[in-house]
Design goal:
It is a single chain. This protein has about 725 residues and is an alpha/beta fold. It has five domains: about 5-110, Arc Repressor Mutant, subunit A; about 115-185 and about 240-305, Orthogonal Bundle (Tex N-terminal region-like), CATH 1.10.3500.10; about 320-475, 2-Layer Sandwich (Nucleotidyltransferase, domain 5); about 495-615, Orthogonal Bundle (DNA polymerase, domain 1), CATH 1.10.150.310; about 635-710, OB fold (Dihydrolipoamide Acetyltransferase, E2P) (Beta Barrel), CATH 2.40.50. It has a five-stranded mixed beta sheet with strand order 6-5-4-7-8, sandwiched between helices. Helix 8 (about 115-120) packs across helix 11 (about 155-170) and helix 15 (about 260-310) packs parallel to helix 22.
Length: about 725
């Protein structure tokens, strides 16, 4: 890592160079983002997880850019050594913009055969140079000198020379950058429907004849238009004013004091260069740039939604009945113990005949009593609403028991996964799905980590964005959520353990194997006995692992083992055992943390230790709460404008949020309809996934299955 690269990151992120350098060194040593942000605050100057992540992303991007610079310099040196001037070499070495770097390389880049290369093969390069000199001599006379067996006429010679000039103009870094500025300021995005596919693309009809300044086009809209183009519904273009663009080029390539036949030829070459070479190139570049920006925005929204789902409040260790609803095939019902282990499963048919309804009621009542059920989870898919009503009607008068609607997105994918087959090899897919629904209620995080985060279904355009970036972002999101909550070393699955800082799939499997062979871990130090866990892995992981009931109470806290000596010293100075410091605020108030500052442990870490000792292992996720939809609303035709309805936020985007109001179709709560008292820039400022809200119906489009909602005046 060069100092220049680190300084560049510092400039981009507006983070002190010392903090950037320290963080980069920790990342280079193999430290994880959660570990750095939690346990290395003294070194990084208390950078948060997002800042550390941003440094890691920029470090990767700029390292790749530096490698590209090195490749370009070598390529020019090997193939055009006489043209690698000190000025060009300096320009390349000091370039931190990939587009501008490629501009510098463009004239030297290996090419397929072009019109210009064909003209050069005909020996027309000198004629092009003559024209560019803008001499007052007659161009036609000069062109006639190049007529031969390959060049039929003076016009043929001039056409070839213009091809050479057009290519030179299109490859000129200054020219490209000037036009880039024009595109940035005034490029217009247009889309037109492909008539033959008009009926197929009704969902894109807003963009059938659409025009908008590219810089003002929201990311979600651009992704929708690009998807429609991919589906051959739309044709799109990015344009700037042709005369303005050509004038920019003329100012650069035509002398002010000259107007002759040469400048006429250059003007023709400029028109050709702009239309044939520069427009397609810059259109692709700007679409790519704005697509990348839209991708980043969409991925951030998706990742935040996933994070909120992962951090949804758990019900905790309660005996749970879970139901995967269905009409024709019935409802798969399972009973789980406090740890989520399967006790019983069956199928009930409450939605067909009256006799089957009565049988289903008796089965539910019997199982609740038999297995001492504390809560009931109902999947929110097909027949979910009807099944919830059936359960409530069955249990309300007899049992004091809460019924929860559970988001079942991705449950079917888990059911067919290797993880599910390994866990329940003898069970039907639908039974596995019901088990997953119940476990999601008990502990959403522990269950959702078993499936690919993309399958959770809380993003938009996840199939349209860069898949590598999406995977990296979601993996980091899952890791962040897992490490924020902490993981029980003795009960967590291999799937959950693998996301703990420093562990990964291989060590996670080794940990579960160790538990099978040796029994529960009695201390964090015992982790070092696991195959593959060295000092580095232990350092990264230990603070995020919990051992309830351990002999050392700090083993069930977020206090890192490296800080145990400090806590022991605090306890000794207070003449108390360490366990007396746990959750005893009156004792903790007596500690002057400044007294314990040393070379390794500073005030930020000491304050974190005190905060953790106050409430060790506190789950940041809160507690789950039950919810009911309006009993009178079952389908879109039951809705009326101005109805007030309870709902649940199911998805959050940059333009608003989608709300489940208890029917098949989710309603759209546009960003402009969230608040009547404040301007909302981002719905995520005030709304959370799975948040319970009250909404008002603004409009209903039954044909297009669209419902507009509002929270104003609530």
């Amino acid at each position: 890592m060069t100092e220049l690269l680190l300084q560049q990151i510092s400039n981009i992120l507006s983070i002190n160079i010392k903090q950037v350098t320290a963080t980069a060194e920790l990342l280079d040593e193999g430290a994880t983002i959660p570990f750095i942000s939690r346990y290395r605050k003294e070194i990084t100057g208390s950078l948060n997880e997002m800042q550390v992540s941003d440094i890691a992303v920029e470090l990767k991007r700029l390292t790749e850019l530096v490698k590209r610079r090195e490749y370009i310099l070598k390529s020019i040196s090997d193939n055009h050594k006489d043209k690698l001037t000190p000025e060009l070499e300096s320009s390349i070495n000091n370039c931190w913009d990939l587009n501008k770097l490629e501009d510098l390389y463009l004239p030297f880049k290996p090419k397929r055969k072009t019109k210009a290369s064909a003209a050069r093969e005909k020996g027309l390069e000198p004629l092009a140079q003559f024209i560019m000199s803008q001499s007052s001599m007659d161009v036609i006379s000069e062109a006639e000198k190049f007529i031969n067996e390959n060049v039929e006429s003076a016009e043929d010679a001039l056409s070839g020379a213009r091809d050479i000039i057009a290519e030179q103009i299109s490859e000129d870094a200054v020219a490209r950058n000037s036009l880039r500025s024009l595109y940035k300021q005034s490029a217009v995005l247009t889309s037109k429907v492909v008539t033959k596919n008009k009926e197929l693309g009704q969902k894109y009809q807003d963009y059938f004849d659409y025009t908008e300044e590219l810089r003002k086009c929201p990311g979600h809209r651009l992704l929708a238009i690009l998807r429609a183009e991919k589906e051959d519904i739309l044709r799109i273009a990015v344009d700037v004013d042709k005369s303005m663009a050509e004038n920019i080029l003329k100012k650069q390539f035509i002398r002010k004091d000259v107007s002759n036949s040469s400048t006429d030829q250059i003007s023709l070459a400029i028109e050709d260069a702009f239309k044939r070479l520069l427009t397609p190139s810059l259109e692709n570049e700007f679409l790519k740039t704005y697509k990348e920006k839209a991708d980043k925005e969409a991925i951030l929204v998706f990742a935040e939604n996933v994070r909120q789902l992962l951090l949804a409040a758990p019900l905790g260790q309660k005996r749970t009945m879970a139901i995967d609803p269905g009409f024709r095939t019935g409802c798969k019902l399972v009973c789980l113990d406090e740890q989520g282990s399967l006790l019983h499963y069956t199928t009930i048919f409450p939605h067909q005949s009256q006799n089957q309804l009565k049988d289903a009621e008796e089965t539910v009542k019997k199982l609740i009593a038999q297995f001492k059920i504390d809560a009931i989870a109902v999947g929110n898919g097909t027949a979910g609403r009807e099944t919830q009503s059936f359960i409530k009607n069955t249990t309300d008068d007899l049992f004091d028991i809460d019924v929860y609607m559970v988001n079942e997105a991705g449950a079917s994918i888990y059911s067919a996964s290797d993880a599910a087959r390994e866990e329940f090899p003898d069970l039907d897919l639908t039974v596995r799905g019901a088990i997953s629904i119940g476990r999601r209620l008990m502990d959403p995080l522990a269950e959702l980590v078993k499936i690919d985060a993309k399958s959770i279904g809380v993003g938009q355009y996840q199939h349209d964005v860069d898949q590598h970036q999406l995977k990296d972002s979601l993996d980091q999101t899952v890791s962040s959520a897992v490490n924020l909550v902490g993981v029980n070393l003795n009960t967590s699955s291999q799937h959950l353990l693998q996301y703990v800082s420093g562990i990964g799939p291989k060590i996670a499997k080794a940990i579960t194997n160790y538990r099978k062979d040796k029994g529960p871990f009695k201390s964090r130090d015992e982790l070092l006995k696991v195959n593959g866990v060295g000092a580095k892995a232990f350092e990264q992981a230990a603070g995020f692992l919990r051992i309830p009931g351990a002999e050392n109470p700090l083993d069930n806290s977020a206090v890192h083992p490296e800080s145990y000596p400090v806590v022991i010293e605090m306890a000794k100075d207070l003449s108390h055992p360490v366990k007396d410091l746990i959750s005893r605020e009156e004792i903790l108030k007596k500690i002057d943390i400044k007294k314990y500052v040393n070379e390794k442990t500073g005030l930020p870490t000491l304050q974190d230790i005190i905060d953790e000792l106050k409430k060790p292992g506190l789950d940041p996720r809160g507690e789950a709460s039950a919810f009911s939809f309006s009993k009178d609303i079952n389908e879109i035709k039951d809705l009326k404008v101005d109805m007030r309805l309870p709902g649940i936020i199911t998805n959050i985007t940059k333009f608003g949020a989608f709300v489940d109001i208890g029917i098949k179709e989710n309603g759209l709560l546009h960003i402009s309809q969230i608040s009547s008292t404040k301007f909302i820039k981002d719905p995520a400022e005030v709304l959370k996934l799975d948040q319970k809200v009250t909404v008002r119906v603004v409009s209903i489009d039954e044909e297009r299955k669209r419902i507009q909602l509002s929270m104003k005046d609530f």
